[in-house]
Structure formats: structure tokens, C-alpha cells
Amino acid sequence: MPLGQWTQEYCCGCLETWSEGLSRRGFIKVGLGGLLSMLFADWLVQQPLRAQTNNIRKAKSVILLWMNGGPSQLDTFDPKPNSKNGGIFKPIKTRIPDVQFTELLPQLAEHADKLAVIRSMVSKETNHQRAQYLLHTGYLPQGTVEHPSFGAVVAKELGDENFDLPHFVSIRGPSFGAGFLGATYNPLVVTNLSQPVENLLPPQHVTPDRLERRLFLLRYLEGKFADWTKDENQQRHLITYNKALRLMRSPLTKAFNIAEEPESVKQAYGDNDFGRGCLLARRLVEAGVRFVEVYLDGWDTHQDNFTRTQRLCSILDPAFATLLKELKERDLLDSTLVVWMGEFGRTPRINPNEGRDHWARGFSVVLAGGGIRGGQVIGATNEDGTDVVHRPVTVPDLFATLCHLLGIDPNKRYYTPNGRPITIVDKGQVVTELVG
Questions:
Q1: Alpha-helix residue ranges (DSSP H) falling in 98-253
Q2: pLDDT of 193
Q3: How many angstroms separate the CA atoms of 378 and 421, rounded?
Q4: Strands 168-171 and 291-297
Q5: How far apart are CA 379 and CA 377, in angstroms?
Q6: Model-level pTM?
Q7: Phi, psi of 421, rounded to the nearest 5 degrees
Q8: Closest CA to 172 of 258, 296, 69
């Protein structure tokens, strides 16, 4: 229980008791006993999570495939062929016995033995902005507090400060950043996959000698200003600046150059930005980057759900499947946790516009690699897809599980600029069935 909340409850109860005739010494005894018992109870609750995360981690990196808008679970990983809600797509067999996907995902069906499909994700949030915040940070928006995204947490906890590349890269999307952790852990955003990363090289008219003179002058001015102000933000700025300079000079930047890949590999991922993004994600984790988010927009299918979902799955299926195949072939799958999800799912009921609306009472998340036990389905929705009937998994549960696989303590406390303690995960429990 957070100390602020406990203090308020404790003081209210004890002051009332004291007013009924306890001596000062008696009050202290009662108060101390209550304090110890409550802190001990809180400690006991946290021990299972701490014990689980003390194991040697398998996952070293994360690739998040973010389906912006909220994909339809019924038209992808949780088909309902015997229901009027099922839609037009036929179910197909997968590499998991008695488990079906829809016909839109034939390549992923062949890799289902690597996948763990959670069909019972539950949330109470169906607003896009709030749900996106929740699924990126593990928290709902709370006033002026800007929580760090999970990518920033992974960069902070697992990143090496001496590594030349950024440990958090976002591809083709407006990613949530580091929040109160500071700009040091913000993502490098890659927006144009057909061009070199912006500002990675100096302008053509700036010669190496001229660049060095500029850098010398900048270092001098920045250093003087930092010594004068003694400001923490200024120190962070210097760290970020030096890291950017290392990035410009590092041979590891070739990881961003997907043009080096054979044409057959590029075609396997798909001739589109999401396919190229998945290829870049593979190259980045191979180079040592800890967290890469690849963004596929368009899943908010209030109208014409079936046509739009079919088009999106024609992009998703080969890219996701090829990513799994290549990670496996390069011995990277065991150390790379792949997460497929959006902010929520879509309604089982089909609306008058042939669309599906927002739905958070039972949607799907797919995991692979990084210590995940593949070839299984976690949880279930009923025949109509309207309710979770087995093993509900909450957003904090998902985040606790990801932390466990990465060897991150979910109960570790960060502090906001005003000193407020916030744990990495908000009271989630590890989904033990997922852990291999």
C-alpha cells in the first residue's frame, strides 16, 4: 500500500481511538504495531513478484508491433465461426492443435507453435488516447504525472550508457516517451524508411575539420553553462548531446541501412513501411538495441471493417511471420520478446456500417520469444466473443509478465520530479502459464 494512502487511513483510525481515552504511550504502541503489521503485509504481497524476477532473464530486447486503433480479435486470432458475430472470414488450422486463426493470417498460422495468444485481455478503457497511454505505460493518465512508456523503462533498466545506438527506437509512429524519467530515455523516431535517419550525418557543405571546430566551440560553451547553472536538466542535455555525437560517428549506424539486405529478404517482409519497419527492428535488436516499436495504423474500423482488416492483415501477416522466422534462424528469438497488440479490440457485434466499434472486455494480445512458452492459448472468450469466460488477464498482469521475462523488478520505485514514488507496474501478477 502506498505510504501516503496508508498514512491517511492510519491517522484517521488512530486519532479516533486516541480520542476515546488511550494514553500517549498507548497510542504509540498501537500505532507502531499497526505500522509494522501493515508494512509487513505489504512486503509479503510483493515477495512473489520479487522472487519471480530474481531469476536469470531470457529476454534481452523487445519488439513491440503496435496496431494503432485497436485490431479486431474476431477477425484475426480469436475467430467465432459459429456465431452471428463471427464475420465473413473463415477459420483455418494452425500449428497448435485445435486452435484456429482466421484465413487472413495463413503465414502466422504456420508459426503458431512459436506464439502464445492471450484471448482474454481485459481493460475498462475504450477511449483511444487513454487506452494507448495505458497499454504503453501500464497506467491510466493521472493529472500532471507523465508516466514513462515501457520502452523507456526497458532502456533505463537494461540499456548500457556506453552503447552507441539509442536503446529505444520508434518506427513510423508517434510513440509515447520517457515521461518523468527524462529526455535521456526518449525514443529515436524513424519516420522515413526509404531515406537515411535524419541528422545522422552532417550537411554536405560541412567538412570534417569544420565540424570538429564547431563541436569544440559547442563543448566549451555548454561546459561553461553547465558549470555555472549546476542544473540537472542541463547535465541531462549534455549526456543526450554526447550520445547523439557518438551515434553520428559509430559504425553501428549501419544497422539502420536496410538497403544492405538481399532483395529476397526485403520482399519476404513486404514492400511497405510496416514490412520495412519489421526488417529494421530485426537489424536493430541484432545490433544490441533493447526496445523497438513498429507502428501499423488503420485498425479503427468503425466502417467497412472487413475490407480494411483484410488489407491490414495482408501487410501484417508476411511481415510478422518473416520476423519470427528470421529471429529464429539467427538465434535471436530466445533473447527477443515480440509483442503484438493495440490499445483494445473491436466489438463482437457488427454495426450498421459493416464496422466494429471499441471493445476492451475481451481482446487478444500475442507474444513470442524471450522465454515465452509458445504453441498455446491463454484464456478464452465465450461463443459470441462478448465475455471472457476463462483466465482474464489485466494490463498490469501483462506488464508484470514482461518485466519478469526481462529480469526487471516490477515493484521498483521511480520518483516524479515532485518526489512522488511510482512503481514500474501497478499491482500486476505474472501470468505464469506464459513463462517457458
A1: 106-110, 128-137, 150-158, 208-229, 232-249
A2: 86
A3: 33
A4: parallel
A5: 6
A6: 0.83
A7: -80, 135
A8: 296
